[in-house]
Design brief:
With 215 residues, the protein is mainly alpha-helical. The chain has one domain (29-214). Helix content is 60%, strand content 6%. It contains eleven helices and three strands; from the N terminus they run αααβββαααααααα. The chain has helices spanning 2-11, 13-24, 41-54, 84-92, 97-112, 115-136, 143-147, 149-152, 157-173, 179-191, 207-214, and strands spanning 63-67, 72-74, 79-83. A three-stranded mixed beta sheet has the order 1-3-2. β2 (72-74) and β3 form a beta hairpin. α5 packs across α9 and α9 (157-173) packs across α11. The longest helix is centred in the middle third of the chain and has 22 residues, at 115-136. The protein starts with a helix and ends with a helix. Bound molecules: zinc ion. Zinc ion is lined by residues 106, 110, 155, 160, 163.
Length: 215
């Protein structure tokens, strides 16, 4: 059986090699923690500092990490967290430093426009309403999990589109030539082959809507 099975096995060697190459791309390995050291860190730091300076944004409170997650987010305690899936894509799908500048500009736009604060306020109102409803209809508070904007996704659709427009303005001010075109290129890059429901950008509006908004 072992002898007969051998030619069959050989057939799979190219596939195995391909899989090994694929997995070696996935350099980030630890999950579930926020870590400070990663090879792309200097690019992110430069982007935060350059965009901040050009646009009078005080970035001194912002700290930078990488960890679990799909895309890049900014938290309400001023942490920019670069997701594992983003780094994987950056390393394996020809990511460019310009793209990092675009996505950092987007996060700094959320930051400058205080989107998270507005989102939190909306979240508290929803929670309060649901707690009230819970007294009348026991168990109704569970609906909060489905309705609460903070639980479902970070920002509203309109906030995402607003952050895109603001990010392009930031890049303009920073002196980036053809900022809008470059930003759109970065968007296209991050959406390629990503499932709209479960993929990297599932929490954001569709690519066409975002490009349409910028045009
Ligand atoms: Zn966003």
């Amino acid at each position: 059986m072992g002898v007969r099975g051998e030619p069959k096995l050989r057939k799979y060697i190219p596939i195995l090699l391909f899989l090994i190459v694929l997995t070696s791309c996935a350099a980030p390995q630890r999950r579930g923690a926020l870590l400070t050291e990663f090879p792309e860190r200097p690019i992110f730091e430069a982007a935060i500092s350059d965009i901040g300076k050009a646009n009078d944004i005080d970035v001194s409170k912002i700290s930078l990490y990488w960890g679990d997650g799909s895309t890049i987010i900014i938290t309400d305690d001023d942490k920019i967290i670069v997701g594992y899936d983003f780094l994987y894509r950056y390393r394996c799908r020809e990511g460019k430093p310009e793209y990092i500048y675009c996505f950092v500009a987007h996060e700094l736009a959320h930051y400058k426009l205080s989107h998270l604060g507005k989102r939190k306020a909306a979240s508290y109102v929803t929670t309060a309403l649901m707690l009230g409803l819970n007294m009348v209809v026991p168990g109704a508070g569970l609906l909060n999990l489905g309705l609460n904007p903070m639980v479902t996704s970070g920002y509203s659709r309109s906030q995402e589109l607003e952050a895109d427009s603001e990010a392009v303005k930031f890049m303009d001010k920073q002196g980036v030539e053809g900022a809008r075109g470059k930003y759109i290129e970065a968007l296209r890059w991050i959406y390629v082959g990503s499932n709209p429901k479960t993929g990297l950008m599932a929490t954001h509006p569709q690519l066409e809507d975002r490009i349409g908004n910028l045009n």
